[in-house]
Design goal:
This protein is α/β, with parallel strands linked by helices. It is built from 21 helices and 16 strands. The termini are far apart. It binds flavin-adenine dinucleotide (FAD) and iron/sulfur cluster (SF4).
């Protein structure tokens, strides 16, 4: 395998058909710098100027001690670098792969700011921890003493798992409930395998299970078990359910065949890559192979959909976004990757309706950016008379996610929620107004990032340990 990303397509039509998902898996992973060898890691790390004003660190949600582990890597002291890196991050190899570094640590690297190109912090972080796994430096979870208290965690995404890790290491009895059949949340069924290999996540799931975390999978709280039961059973409960209600649009043709939700499309693709039976994929309903794909949205989920479509063998992939490139919410790096793979972006373009059932096209209206709205962002306005039809065999809606109505679904009207349906919780501890009930990750922040979910999970676990008096005990 070469050190260069493999997927530099020239045109969509010429190169896409041979890029079928199953046989592409290993090859796709090269993109996430699989061959970041020690020399490269050292070379990059030694570019860190140890500037003394580590903006990278302050812009990392976990405040990772980046300058120190870069220095240690540059000196070849990889095990120490790993120790420093894992001290603040539960899943460094995952963040190294999928954090939008251009908006976080790397975007604030002083060298980047001075125009010399950032130190590739994420790639080094990934390299250090992958090496630690290979060399056996990642130790099993083995609490020094068992504690009587138990914590129930609803949701096995990064927020729930980060909390589980901290609590279990302190000897707390931890049970994680998830409605899916595999732990990992969006790390498993949302984010595509070409960005985050699934064995990297499963390895962490195994580590937690082997360390004594009990997983109750295929268990939907509110259906298979009540929220009240969990509160009665555990000394504390953490809600880490993420946000899964897809935003919809109202337009003529919505509801027709061929219009699919991004999360369904990505889940089907991830399941297929696990080797699961996925009838909707096999029937073509959730499969872009041989189709003209239009993805609607400008966030990272939309980028994942366009890039997954490319790998499934779509004949063309277009992305419609109602603002311009500079104002899109997704990572610029992802757009660049998608463009290199042949995806065409139609900026300032919004769907007005859908033609055919099954769909044959999208009625597109052209937009311009008008005056800033209340949030300060320029609001898109329709340009009259500029509509056109974009041909499509499948339209993937990636318009964002909202919280499900947990208080009613869980028959707990006292569960405090915001007007967006997210749970009201203290940001530093995750504590809600319900005694012993905490919440972390996307269900508190709204659709956010893995690294923020990890941060929340860790902070919440610390708060629960303080509640249990564990911190004091540990200090004795
Ligand atoms: C397609 C996509 C791509 C993304 N790419 C990136 C990226 O590249 N980088 C990045 O940093 N972030 C990315 N994100 C965002 C990131 O995945 C989330 O911010 C993060 O996973 C949130 O973690 P969480 O633990 O709060 O929730 P989740 O990861 O959503 O996990 C929640 C878990 O709760 C379970 N659950 C929900 N309801 C119940 C219930 N009633 N009973 C039992 N279990 C329940 C779910 O099954 C799920 O396993 C992406 C998101 C999407 C959708
Ligand atoms: S966790 Fe994310 S933001 Fe922090 S150093 Fe790692 S890649 Fe950068």
């Amino acid at each position: 395998m070469s050190g260069q990303p493999m997927l530099k397509f020239v045109t969509v039509e010429r190169d896409m058909p041979e890029k079928r998902s199953a046989d592409m898996r290993r090859e796709d992973f090269d993109e996430i710098y699989a061959e970041y060898a020690e020399t490269k890691a050292k070379e990059q790390s030694s570019r860190c100027s140890q500037c003394g004003v580590p903006y990278c660190q302050s812009h990392c949600p976990l405040h990772n001690n980046i300058p120190d582990w870069l220095r240690l890597t540059a000196e070849g002291r990889l095990q120490e670098a790993y120790e420093v890196s894992q001290a603040t991050n539960t899943f460094p190899e995952i963040c190294g792969r999928i954090c939008p570094q251009d908006r976080l640590c790397e975007g604030n690297c002083v060298i980047e700011q001075s125009g010399h190109g950032t130190v590739t912090i994420g790639a080094v972080e990934k390299y250090i921890t992958d090496t630690a796994w290979e060399k056996g430096w990642v130790l099993p979870i083995s609490p020094a003493q068992e504690r009587a208290e138990s914590v129930g965690i609803i949701g096995a995404g990064p927020g729930g798992l980060a909390a589980a890790d901290v609590l279990r290491r302190a000897g707390v009895q931890v049970t994680v409930y998830d409605r899916y059949d595999r732990a990992g949340g969006l790390l498993i069924y949302g984010i595509p395998g070409f960005k985050l290999e699934k064995d990297v996540v499963m390895r962490r799931n195994d580590q937690l299970a082997q360390g004594g975390v009990t997983f109750k999978l295929n268990t939907s709280v509110g259906e298979d078990v009540t929220f009240a039961d969990l509160r009665a059973q555990h000394d504390a409960v953490i809600i880490a359910t993420g946000v899964y209600k897809s935003r919809e649009i109202e337009a003529p043709g919505v509801g027709g065949k061929g219009l699919v939700r991004a999360i369904d499309f990505l889940t089907a693709s991830n399941r297929k890559n696990f080797g699961d039976a996925v009838p909707e994929f096999d029937s073509g309903e959730l499969n872009a192979a041989g189709k003209r794909v239009v993805v609607i949205g400008g966030g990272d989920t939309a980028m994942d959909c366009v890039r997954t479509s490319v790998r499934q063998g779509a004949t063309s992939v277009k992305c419609l976004y109602r603002r311009d490139r500079a104002n899109m919410p997704g990572s610029q790096r992802e757009v660049q990757n998608a463009e290199e793979e042949g995806v065409v972006f139609e900026w300032l373009s919004a769907p007005k309706g859908f033609i055919g059932d099954p769909v044959t096209g999208v009625m597109v209206q052209k937009m311009r950016l008008g005056a800033p709205d209340a949030t300060g962002r320029q609001a898109p306005e329709v340009i009259e008379g500029a509509d056109y039809v974009e041909g499509a065999d499948i339209v993937i809606m990636a318009l964002g996610f909202e919280a499900e109505a947990l208080p009613s679904l869980w028959d707990e009207p006292a569960l405090p929620v915001t007007r967006w349906g997210t749970i009201k919780a203290e940001f530093t501890s995750g504590a809600t107004e319900l005694d012993g009930v905490y919440a972390v990750g996307d269900i508190v922040r709204g659709a956010s990032l893995v690294v923020w979910a990890i941060r929340d999970g860790r902070d919440c676990a610390d708060a629960i340990l303080s509640r249990f008096g564990a911190a004091a005990l540990a200090a004795e």
